[in-house]
Description:
By secondary structure, the chain is α/β, with parallel strands linked by helices. It has helices spanning 11-24, 29-38, 43-55, 90-121, 132-147, 159-169, 185-193, 196-205, 216-225, 255-349, 384-393, and strands at 79-82, 172-178, 206-212, 232-239, 242-250, 361-367, 373-379, 401-405, 410-411, 434-441. Strand 4 and strand 5 (242-250) form a beta hairpin.
Amino acid sequence: MAAPEEPELSQAQTEKLLQFQDLTGLESMDQCRRTLEQHNWNIEAAVQDRLNEQEGVPSVFNPPPSRPLQVNTADHRVYSYIVSRPQPRGLLGWSYYLIMLPFRFTYYTLLDIFRFALRFIRPDPRGRVTDPVGDVVTFIHNFEEKYGQSHPVFYQGTYSQALNDAKRELRYLLVYLHGEDHQDTDEFCRSTLCTEEVITFLNTRMLFWACSTSKPEGYRVSQALRENTYPFLAMIMLKDRKMTVVGRLEGLIQPEDLINQLIFIMDANQTYLMSERLEREERSQTQVLRQQQDEAYLASLRADQEKDRKKREEQEQRRQEEEKVRQSALAEERRRRTLEEEKERKSECLPPEPPADDPESVKIVFKLPNDTRVERRFHFGQSLTVIYDFLFSLKESPEKFQIVTNFPRRVLPCLPTEEQPNPPTLKEAGLSRSEVLFVQDLTDD
Length: 445
């Protein structure tokens, strides 16, 4: 059984299909069409979902899935910078370190065992993300309460939205995971993150997204990025058409060192962004060119359609005129045949011509419009209609005519009328034994 044919696309749908293909880079027109149909031809929603699919992150139009977010972290060229804690100095420092080592080891071991056991009793509530935007907004509020209003501009949206905006705008995205329980977190926030030079650098060079790992949204990002220690920063950018982690900064890093490391990462990957910008410009130019070509094609198509319409109208007009001429010719032929038949019938119905020696006979000479003369004898007692029928039966006589005497000039009433249904006889009309009558053509009248 043959598959049903897909319905034709409208002009607006065709333009959206071409625009969606240019934006996403998909080669299959069928896949582009299926995606747009799934989103009721909402190109913004379709493009957003396609970008999420390429990045492996949840769509901003659907509830986030339970699985961790996926960003390309398998690239072996990822730059990693880890700041180790300073080693103890002097006899007093080493003595304190060695004395506290067993207690620290025991504390963290018992804490890990407790957390591990707690998972079997009560699942980690961070595993279910129900309000990702609320998690981010709550973190920003708590951060400002603890560290003040002077800080880099936090991206107020989900991690997925931050990725999509960074990809759309071709900007770097710096992700900060806030470990509330870590011993270096407070010092990093106060001494590094909230310093004027770091704030200025981050606000002018990149998007900055942050969340606490104690919140479901932050925990989900933590599962995707797999940090080793805190403070943790990850630099993400569009690389080879995927949102990729290109730099990882871990540990208590100083402001100047942080800025230098970020500049190093940006310089090392600047060519990828430049290449992507050029590629997008080419796609945009190609899209504009294709749009111009489509507009030119549509204009040419409309012009051809208009020519075809005019041609069809001219052909129809010629056909109607030819049909009108043909019908007129047929009508004229029917009229001519009817007239000939009527002449023959009138000729057959004429009474015989009386002899010349008949005292009641009348000799009449008819002068026709074509200057020919016709002579015939009639009986005084015959009606003027007989004269008219005789002239009508002649081939030389016009179709419509009247018979006129010369002097005095008068028209003979040869045909019946409402006032005179029976035309007079030749004698009653006052004709003499020899008359000359004129036939006046009334065809044009």
